Amino acid sequence: MVKKVIIGVVVVALLAVAVLFGQPLFSSVMNMVSPPPQLVVAPSQEFTVNLLDPGMRRFLRMRMSFAYYDNSELVAEINSRDAQLRDTVFAVLRTRSINDLATNENIDKLRQDLVTAINEILEHGDIVNVYFVEFAMQ
Fold it and tell me: Rounded to the nearest 10 degrees, how much is the dihedral formed by the CA atoms of 82, 138, 92, 54?
């Protein structure tokens, strides 16, 4: 009974501190109690695909890594569904032309489209980012 009262007082005190001093202090305290999951960057994979350029034979060769929060179920799913993930990446890349990849803004849009498409098929977690390790168009 005494432990419940002490825990209740501590929780109320933390909430009061959060209200009085703002969210950053509360987040810091919560991180000490329960540290956030670690961000993992998977080894890069190579992709080569023909770009959508009518009448021209253009292709993109790139190496890309997935970033996600450490989750053993997600790692197992990524490994077991490699073919489906690669197919999803190819499906997104085949919709782009060389002009679609000419600016940093368009590369960022591609990055977001890849994250969205990959997350649509994953069941045990999400990819939070993709990193382009190599990116060559010809």
Answer: -140
**Which residues, other chains included, contact 131 with Cβ-Cβ below 8 Å and sequence gap of 6+?**
41, 44, 64, 65, 67
Q: In which domain, by residue range, is 29 found? A: 2-33
Q: Give me the phi and psi of 137, to 5 degrees please.
A: -115, 145
Q: Do residues 64 and 91 both lie within one domain?
A: yes
Tell me, what CATH number does 55's domain have? 3.30.479.30
Please list, in sequence order, all residues whose beta carbon lies within 8 angstroms of the beta carbon of residue 70, skipping any fewer than 6 positions away: 37, 38, 39, 40
Pair of tokens at residue 23 = 């969210």
**What mean pLDDT is predicted for residues 32-40?**
76
CB atoms < 10 A from the CB of 74, how many? 19
Distance CA 106, CA 83 (A): 26
pLDDT tens by residue, 87-105: 999 999 988 888 888 889 9
